[in-house]
C-alpha cells in the first residue's frame, strides 16, 4: 500500500506540474517539510482533488478543493535540534537534519521568533537522537492565526532548566513559553511540562469562540481551513451530538449552539481539562468532555 501510494503521488505530481513555478522557500527540495511548492497553487488544488477522489472512490466524490493561503499559514512547527542544526529532517532521510534559516509555511511572527531562538540558543547543547545523548530536543512554536498570540516551547531530555539568562529578554516578546520534558528513547516533541516560563497557554478565536491552547493540546494547524470546515460541520449539526477525538473542544464548542447537547471524547487528559476551561470561559453549558 505504501509503495502504491508513493507511486500514485508521483504520477499526480507529474500530471499537475504544468510549467512549474519558483518555490518560495530556499530549502525546498532538501527539507522534507513541503512537497508541492514547485507546482502552481491552482494545480495543487486539482492534485488534492484527484487524490481525495481516489481515496473515496465508490463512497463519495469531491467537485473542488476550497483554496486556502498556500504560504505563511501554519499554526505549529516542531523544529528538531540535533547535530549542531535547528530545523527539519532532510527529505526521506531521518538521520539528517536541514539547518532551517527561515520557513515559508510558518506564520510570520513564529518564523521571526524561530530565527531569534536559533541565535539565542546556539550555545545550548542539542540532542543526538541516534545515540540518545544531549539536552535540547525540539523548539516548538505555535501561533493563533486570528489572535496573533505566540507560544515558544523548548523540549528537553532531562528535567533541568539550562537556559540561564539566554531567554530573559526573549520571553518579553512572546505570550507563552514552557520547558517540556521528553526523557524517553522515543523521538517525541511533547511530554509533561517541567517548567512554565510564561503563562502556559495562548488563545485562538473562531467566530467569537475563544480557545485556550496549552503546550501539549492538539489544535488544527491551519486555522483558516479549520474555520471553513467547522462552519460546514455546524450546518449539519443537530440533536444530541458526539465529538470523537475532541481535543480542546474546538468543534464541540463551535457547533454547540446548533445542538441539543454535545459530548466530547478525548484520550489526552490535558486536552480534556482545557476543553472544560474553554466551555466555562465561553459560558457554553450544553457540552461535556470525557
Question: How does this structure look, described?
Answer:
With 290 residues, this protein is of the alpha+beta class. 26% of the residues lie in helices and 26% in strands. It contains six helices and 14 strands. The strands form four sheets. It has a seven-stranded mixed sheet, with helices on one face. A three-stranded parallel sheet has the order 12-13-14. The longest helix is centred in the first third of the chain and has 15 residues, at 2-16. The protein is globular, with a radius of gyration of 20 Å. It starts with a helix and ends with a strand. The model has no long low-confidence stretch (mean pLDDT 94).
Give me a quick take on this structure.
This protein has six helices and 14 strands. With 290 residues, it is of the alpha+beta class.
Run of helices and strands: HHEEEHEEEEEEEEHEHEHE
Query: Overall mean pLDDT score?
Result: 94
Radius of gyration: 20 Å
Main pleated sheet: 7 strands, mixed
Q: Spatial order of the strands in the main sheet? A: 3-2-1-6-7-8-9
Uncertain runs: none
Helix content range: 25-40%
Total strands: the figure is 14
Instruction: Please work out how many helical segments DSSP would assign.
Output: 6
Estimate the global geometry from the Cα principal axes. Answer: globular
Beta-strand residue fraction? 25-35%
Class inferred from helices and paired strands: alpha+beta
Distance between the termini: 35 Å
